[in-house]
Every structure is written in structure tokens, then in C-alpha cells.
Amino acid sequence: IIVGQGICGSFLSRDLLKAGKTVLVIDDSIPLSASKIASGVINPITGRRLVRTWEIETLMPIAVEAYQSWGVKMGTSLIQQCNILDFHPTPQMVVAFAERLASEKEFLRQPSMIDYWKTYFNFDFGIGEIDPCWLIDINALLNKWRLELKHNNHLLEEVFHWEECIITQDHIAYKNIIAQKIIFCEGELGFSNPYFKLLPYSGNKGEALIVRIPDLPRTNIFKQGMNIVPWQNDLFWIGSSYEWDFIDKHPSPEFLQKVKKQLTHWLKLPFEIMDHVASVRPANMERRPFIGLHPMVSSVGIFNGMGTKGCSLVPYFSLAFTNYLVNGLPLNPQVDVRRFSKVLSR
């Protein structure tokens, strides 16, 4: 049994089915889950210091191949290269980029056609490029996989009810269903999961605007404090915030006004705000995923805690978790949930 059909539950159910396991996914399709409103960007460079994302050399080739091959089987394109154009906000960031460019030859470069972008943007301090970056159509993946799960009777469309679940060391009984394992891929709901709620989760609220910008080229992701990401048709996803201390999970007027003000200053084109969305990411204090079986109850597992890097992390670690469950291959100790055995044994 897999609880949740976000990006974690989708990949894990696919990989376990490919490995010959019988799988049932339980999911009631929350409209604004973190997976569904994520930008879908795989970016190998992170932060103001422009350093490589953790393990990106290993993660990115696996992810790209996984989305490409799964898209072929689904009859749609799930991935496209979409490099980030990073508009330097200050002279200091120009210097910082130049210094990193000297040592980071694989993912950073100076773009050509800088004058071309002055048709679309106001900027004073030049542009750097992160190459390659990838854009994933997460909603197409989730929607098409959901239809396939449903068609093959691998989906139970309902809220998971704890009172209906009986857990023992060697099996799970949920209503009239018996399974060897139950794996929780439930995003922010993991914060209250009775088996894993003591993990060092740190909910991170993200907000984004969906904006129509008909005349903006869809060739790149544009970054200056926020990202403008090609979405659907002539729509762009614009965000996101990273709020560690928040009152609620709803869209905030403050974010809306901040982004409107920045867009008006940065963008030379007319734009129309179509939607404002928010969700809570299942981030954690360590910024490493939670993967594996509960150290005290081996029939219960978790695949969660991806934070902002789900698109790059999930394909690789879903395959690793599948090999762990099916073939007994060890997990990377940095992601194995057994690193919290003392906490989880309380």
C-alpha cells in the first residue's frame, strides 16, 4: 500500500509495479498539494553562493532519463531543457558569478544575446546562465499516471483512515486489503503521521502566481530574486517564496503585492495575474529525504521530505528504495530513516 500520489507516490508505485510487486495507491487528490503547484524545475546550482546542488552529478542524469522514457510510454513530453537566465541584482553578484564561473565550468556560462533580453526586461548588471536546467510537466505526469493506476485497479480514491488500518510486524490490513508493507508518501500530512511525526520536519510554505505574459519567450526560466517559469500555453509560474515561519497555508496579500511590484519594475511587457496559489512543502531540518522502513515496525515505511528538490531527488531515490524493498540493497545512510532510530523508538 502506498499512501499519497504526489511525485513520490507516483514514482514509487511505478517502480514497484515494474519490479513485479502488487501495489495499491490510496489518494483523494488534494487540489493544491505541493507536487501539483511546484514549478517543476531541476536546477544544478543553488543559492547566492552558486554552489552545486547535493549529489546533482548523480541525480540529474537519472532524472532526465526517467522523465524522458516515462513520457515516451505515456505518449507525451514530460521534460524539456529550459536553462535559467540569472539576472544579477547587484554589482556584488556580478563579481560572485564571475568568480564561480572560473571554477564551475560544467553548469555556469555567460549567455549570448544579452542585448536581446533588454527588449523584455529592465536590468543593469548583466546576466549569467545555468546550463543545463530542466523543466518537468509535473501535472501531466500526475494526471496521466493517476488515470493508468485507476484503469488497472491500483488506485483507491479516498482519504486514508487510520482507524481502518491494522499494523503488525509482518503485514498490514486496511479494510479488506492485506499488504506486506505500507509506505507513506503523504507530503505535509507526514507531520502528523503517528509513526513518523517525531522526524525533524520543518514545513516550508511556498507561494506562486500564475500570470499571463503573451509576448514573453518560453525558451528560458528567468530569475531575479524570483523565478518566471514557462507554465501552460501563454501562462507563466512566478515564485516562489520560502517561508519557514507562517501563520497559515493560504495565499497572502503581502506576497501578491511584492511580486506585482517586482514584475512591474523588472518586466517591460504587459501581464495579467490569473491565479495565486500556496502550499506547504515537506521540508526538514537536515535537507535530506526521509526514506526507508521504520526501525521498530518494519512493515511501515516512508518516502517523503524532499523539500524543494523533489523533481531531481525522487527518480533516483525511488529506484533505490525499490531495490531496497525488493532486492535488499542498502540505502544511502544520508537518506535512510534509520538514522533517526533513537527518535523513532520513543
Summarize the structure in short:
This protein has helices at residues 7-18, 56-74, 91-103, 138-151, 253-266, 310-327, 341-344, and strands spanning 2-3, 25-26, 41-42, 45-46, 51-52, 79-81, 84-87, 108-109, 127-130, 134-136, 155-156, 165-167, 172-174, 177-179, 182-184, 204-212, 221-223, 227-230, 235-239, 272-281, 290-293, 300-304. The chain has 346 residues and is an alpha+beta fold.
Provide tags for this entry.
346 residues, alpha+beta, 8-stranded mixed beta sheet, 6-stranded mixed beta sheet, 23% strand, globular
> Globular, elongated, flat, extended or rod-shaped: what is the shape?
globular
Radius of gyration: 21 Å
Order of adjacent strands in the largest pleated sheet: 8-9-7-17-18-19-16-20
Distance between the termini: 25 Å
Biggest sheet statistics: 8 strands, mixed
Order of helices and strands: EHEEEEHEEHEEEHEEEEEEEEEHEEEHH
The level of helicity is: 25-40%
Name the beta content range.
15-25%
Mean pLDDT: 93
Q: Counting H and I runs of at least 4 residues, what is the number of helices? A: 7
Low-pLDDT stretches are none
Number of strands: 22
- Going by helix content, strand content and strand pairing, the class is alpha+beta
Explained architecture:
The protein is an alpha+beta fold and 346 residues long. The chain has 7 helices and 22 strands. It has helices spanning 7-18, 56-74, 91-103, 138-151, 253-266, 310-327, 341-344; strands at 2-3, 25-26, 41-42, 45-46, 51-52, 79-81, 84-87, 108-109, 127-130, 134-136, 155-156, 165-167, 172-174, 177-179, 182-184, 204-212, 221-223, 227-230, 235-239, 272-281, 290-293, 300-304. The protein is globular.
